[in-house]
Amino acid sequence: METTSRVGADGAPDTATAEGVPAARLTVDGYLQAPFPWYGLDEAFTGRRWLMQVGTAADGTVQHGSTGHGDEPSVRGGDSGADKQRFAVVVTVASSPVRRSGDGTGVLDATTVSSAAWLAGSGLLAYTWPPQMDHTLRDDWLDQQTETAFELADDLDGPAWSVLSLPVDGVPVPFHYRESEFGWVLAGSAQGVHIGAYGRGMSAYGLGFSVVEDIATYA
User: What local confidence, expressed as pLDDT, does residue 218 receive?
Assistant: First the structure.
């Protein structure tokens, strides 16, 4: 399974600046460099929209990125109040065949629906840990859960997943869907891309996806 770079896979907002350029502008510029369309929730969602980060291949080509909807998530743990957050994050992954690596020394696997499922699953984990867990143990827990998310993403026909039909650009599309105590994850495909999503506090059953006509509206 090709997951490309993990840059931005956790969905953490980009707060860096470079040579006086605001972080928001840098983030938008990264999205504008993508050779594929971005997806977000369709017009039925009327809440706040915001950008996260893009992930790139070794040669700098944009491979995936995420758009946020609702509350900007924070880590769930202790008494942070994160359980009250309502958000859905949509992950768009470029559909790529088996191809040569950027340096020409190897071969990269094709991106698949599993790639989107993995990025969505790991994204949800980035904002989660059991409330009874000490901060010092979180890294070990996160490593273990991330490996589990990878294995689940590689077995989309397994018992952990069910099938959920949701509209993409107005057309019903089957998605692989699973729930956990931390939230939900789903993954499917659209024209030229794979779509993943994760969320908490918002039901996945009423969601719809559509191409983002102007990504700058998310900044």
Answer: 93
Cβ neighbours of residue 184 closer than 8 Å, sequence gap 6 or more = 124, 177, 178, 198, 199, 200, 204
pLDDT at 119 > cutoff 50? yes
CA distances from 58 to 6, 61, 62, 109, 111 (A): 11, 7, 10, 14, 15
Question: Does the pLDDT value for residue 59 go beyond 60?
Answer: yes
Q: Where are the beta strands (DSSP E) in the chain?
A: 39-41, 49-56, 62-70, 87-94, 99-100, 107-108, 162-168, 171-180, 183-190, 193-200, 209-211
> Hey, CA dihedral for 34, 40, 42, 43, is it positive or negative?
negative
Give the residue extent of every domain in the chain: 23-218
Whole-number Cα distances in Å, 114 to 9, 155, 170: 14, 8, 23
Gap between the Cα atoms of 121 and 158, Å rounded: 15
Distance CA 41, CA 49 (A): 9
For residue 114, give both structure tokens.
């599993």
Residue 179 has what DSSP assignment?
E
The residue-averaged pLDDT of 42-69 equals 92
Say how far apart CA 55 and CA 57 lie, in whole Å.
7
Cα separation, 139 vs 205, whole angstroms: 32
Phi, psi of 89 (to 5 degrees): -115, 130
